[in-house]
Amino acid sequence: MHTRHSLQAAALAAALLFSAHGAQAAEAASRITQVKLYPGSATVERTARVPAGARSFTFRCLPANIDTRSLQVQGDAALRIGEASIRTRERELDPLCISPLDTALREAQDQLATAKAETESLQLSETYLNTVAKIPPETRYAAPGTPGSAAINVTTEALRRSAQDVLQRLHHAKRKQEDAELRYQMVLKERDRVSNPQTRLSSVTVTLASDREAELRLSYQVRGPGWSPSYRATLDSANGKVKLERLALVAQNTGEDWNNVPLVLSTGQPTQRTAGRLPSQWTLDIQPPPTPVTSKELMRMAPAAAPAPIAASAGNSAADAADMPSFDVQTTDNAYATEFNVPQRITVPTGGQRITLTLGAQDVQAQLVTRTAPAMEPLAYLIAQLPVLPGVWPSASVALYRDSAYVGQGTLNNNDGDLARVGLSFGRDERIIVTAEPQQQNAGSAGFIGSDTERKVEHAYRIDNRHQRSVELQVLEAAPVSRNQQIRVESQYTPQPADLQWNRQPGLVLWSQSLAPASSARFTATHTLRYPKDAILSESR
After folding, report:
1. What does the alpha-carbon distance between residue 229 and residue 268 come to, in Å, rounded to a whole number?
2. Which residue, among 366, 372, 376, has the nearest Cα to 400 in the 3D structure?
3. 166 or 524: which carries more pLDDT confidence?
4. What is the crossing angle of helices 149-195 and 100-133, to 10°?
5. Residue 299, CB-side half-sphere exposure with 13 Å CA sphere
6. Structure confidence by residue, pLDDT tens digits, 256-265
7. Is 301 helix (H, G, I), strand (E, B) or coil?
8. Whose C-alpha in 12, 16, 71, 364 is 20 to 30 A from the C-alpha of 392?
9. More confident residue, 153 or 397
10. Stretch (H or E) spanning 365
11. Sign of the Cα pseudo-torsion (539, 462, 444, 531, in order)
């Protein structure tokens, strides 16, 4: 501890000595003026005021994992900027980078020391009273002029009261010391988790020249922080409207606190590859006949060593990402990304604390349908089919509410028209009764001289609407799809399906119709399979 304080004192003295030459080097603190946060990385912009006559400026207390290739230095027109150099060292060596948790830790240490001193002083008083109480009366009052019994009683009562007072105060002091010890340990663990003194930080020194005070800006990319989207969808079943709310979980563990900063969230992905893979040349050749190997050559051949494992790219390693927060947000849909400008300043402390932000809401008119797949389960679900949403909506979990009641979690996928076809499911429709009749199946011979096997399978389903209103009903059935020319499939449906390749999947049949209140509908599918008798049919569902 003494060594660390000595280092801090030396560093402080050096900083004060260095700042005495303000005309040559500026050491004023910079401030974060904007953070643009991506999923998995962030671009941080810092701004500082450079005094007139300065020849260099140092941006201190920066994260150690800065992408040095992303450093950009800009300034006012009157500011001439030279080269920039970066240096990394332990946090404790720079007094300007002391974390607020370090101050809180010292306060906890002082409180603990005070509590210990009080406890030990009371323990000393208790020891003294025990010593006095153990002295026999004849020894204590052996001298001439020994007081009488009345004086002895007064002395004894005073001793009792003193002991009682000391023991009570000692009890409370121990409790106070335990509380101080607990608080110290909590602050210590939090300090070590968030900003350990051994944590390495970077500083960037920029050479410059200016005849007057000017503004200097530094931006850099840092990996690890990020935001993850989530959504909340609230369905009003009376009018078929869905309120979609964008949410974001923001967290960062860079080592620098983002205190009261303007925050922009972007759906861009600067950490991903910037170019796609290109096809390689496709060549054909004839392999030469293998050369015969003699037994002696086989004996001389040593076993091949196992190939060395290929190390993961440092740029794509999971280690690069650190362990990973209600506002009127301005949303900008750019050509290739959507950005959310949070109107008020946000504080995101380092250490992985998650902060939830609401990025806006919009009402979307949905088409409500009741969908069932009776072959899978005799249940029906309420589905909201939505139009394609404008902008970029990354696929993420969505909390689902139906008429203000929470029904569960789903996934919102705005890609490739998935919301319009599959939609969002808002839980079971208990007033649609689904009945799957027993499957009918028979087999026999077919073809010339009975060389083929013919198998007929019939599925039938009954749907009852117990609502007091009509529902748009969708019934899904999987029809067999042949993947071999020897297998022939014929399918007949009653009524005729609306789509034989629902959701672009061949063999996925969709019946769609309006079902009046207190009415029922029956759907049948008959599939005839023909294949060679000696063939073994392979089926997968």
Report:
1. 12
2. 366
3. 524
4. 160
5. 3
6. 888 889 999 9
7. coil
8. 71
9. 397
10. strand 355-365
11. negative
